[in-house]
Amino acid sequence: MTKILNGKIVSDQILAALKKEIATKKQKNNQVPGLAVILVGEDPASTVYVRMKKKRCGEIGIQSFEYKLPADTKEQKIIDLIKKLNHDPEVHGILLQVPLPPGLNEEKLLSLIDPAKDVDGFHPINVGNLLLGRACFKSCTPYGVCKILEHYQIPTKGKHVVILGRSNIVGKPLAAMLIQKDMNATVTICHSQTQNLKDLTKQADILIAAIGKPLFVTSDMVKKNAIVIDVGINRVEDKNDPRGYKIVGDVDYDNVLPKASAITPVPGGVGAMTIAMLMTNTVRALP
Amino acid sequence: MTKILNGKIVSDQILAALKKEIATKKQKNNQVPGLAVILVGEDPASTVYVRMKKKRCGEIGIQSFEYKLPADTKEQKIIDLIKKLNHDPEVHGILLQVPLPPGLNEEKLLSLIDPAKDVDGFHPINVGNLLLGRACFKSCTPYGVCKILEHYQIPTKGKHVVILGRSNIVGKPLAAMLIQKDMNATVTICHSQTQNLKDLTKQADILIAAIGKPLFVTSDMVKKNAIVIDVGINRVEDKNDPRGYKIVGDVDYDNVLPKASAITPVPGGVGAMTIAMLMTNTVRALP
Predict the structure, then answer these.
(1) Does A30-115 match A140-272 in CATH topology?
(2) Active site positions of B, annotated
(3) Cβ proximity of A35 and A64 under 8 Å
(4) Which residues partner with A186 through β-bridges?
(5) Can you name the residues that pair with A248 across neighbouring β-strands?
(6) What is the pLDDT of residues A67-110, one digit of tens each?
(7) Which residues touch B6 (CB under 8 Å, ≥6 apart)?
(8) What's the CATH fold of domain B30-115?
(9) Do residue A190 and residue B186 have CB atoms under 8 angstroms apart?
(10) In chain A, whose CA is at the least distance from the CA of B190?
(11) Residue extents of the structural domains in chain A
């Protein structure tokens, strides 16, 4: 029987532990972690994420500060806000929701966040320390993937992990995490230019898809009894769904399921982990 | 016939081009690049490297500033020196020769170097930008590997590059460079914990050894007509050599040579590239 790796269970467990930890810190040192979220514009997906982050903060005792700015906000205004938050002692984590509206320099703005408050782990200094195997904030989605593996006691040492995708927010930092001595995986990074892709994916003990292509990974690309982790969150048209669409992953779940020894569903897999790891980083950001 | 990838030729060509560029800059803007090298203690290999760097600077017109400090130098003194050099307008590159004597915090000291003068590419912010595919100083040895491939017009797009070794100065940054869109390689990172190593190395279109184990890569680990790049520089005893030792790479050169389509010798391969790339970074550090 294929094991279903339930990200909801793992994230609920992490959030429950954080809630306790936050309560203890409040009682002992009167410390309350604070997360500032900056949302520029009204991208529908971003608006949903920000609402969910705020809700989760409230549930576990993190103070949340929300800054909703119109899409035509001048860059300088965002710079000033980031600088103010960098110095605000009540704010321990700062999150600038991406993507930003056109005309705003994402790279520049993200690198203005104090690395010690960069709970998204997007600042180059955190990315660099991640690759170097040093203390840092780890980006939330790949960190969540590692936590799912840890929770289900899936060994990575010496295992061949094949990652599909080389994005700055998933593929690259995930590879950086997995090659460190605490994970000890052998890692192959594949992408759109990879030749003979199937030859490589079929060798994976653990196959991780993070390319944003609905149902891309088919059963014939997977080795029997592999662990399959699906990071994709794709909207596809679905006339039977009242919303007119449904959410699917990068893996053809129904067909891959019988071949894998374990698999993450979408939704309910990796997606549920991202916020839990954001909350974890925010609590770790307390002095 | 196996092609010998001659790092000496490539580096000489790079140095000659830099020399011209430096002369032009001097004439046009009265700009002279300056490199400060800090050597703490008397590690024999480091002493040789520092001497070679100084010599190369002189040959191509880079001003070199040498700071030789005794092994028992207090950390604060090095911190003060780095801070002074960070603000010195004649110094465009700062190199803290590693390894440092015991008791000195390498990680801390390296991260005090102004990232804009970090011509070794060891500062976490440069490492992070490297992984993120952004402008940065690239560490010299892996950068040299890429330049050898470029010089000999060895395509990397879609090719499977297998890297042996996950060090912070070679394996990790090299993987970070090769997965970017300008190189477009599919990259596998292997290390001491990798299972079935030979199965992986035999798939490599380009096999890169950077593990510091003399003659580790044997002929049976290499695919016919693979490109083999040897980053290793190991001293092994040799009674026939007047020094009592000789330098060999991580690859069993004599036996791998007939199987490879191209190979770097040791010495005369990658080793010659490191200083050329350091000089390149120093010239690029000019404002």
Answers:
(1) yes
(2) 53, 97, 120
(3) yes
(4) A160
(5) A234
(6) 999 999 999 999 999 999 999 999 999 999 999 999 999 999 99
(7) B265, B268, B269
(8) Rossmann fold (3.40.50)
(9) yes
(10) A186
(11) 30-115, 140-272
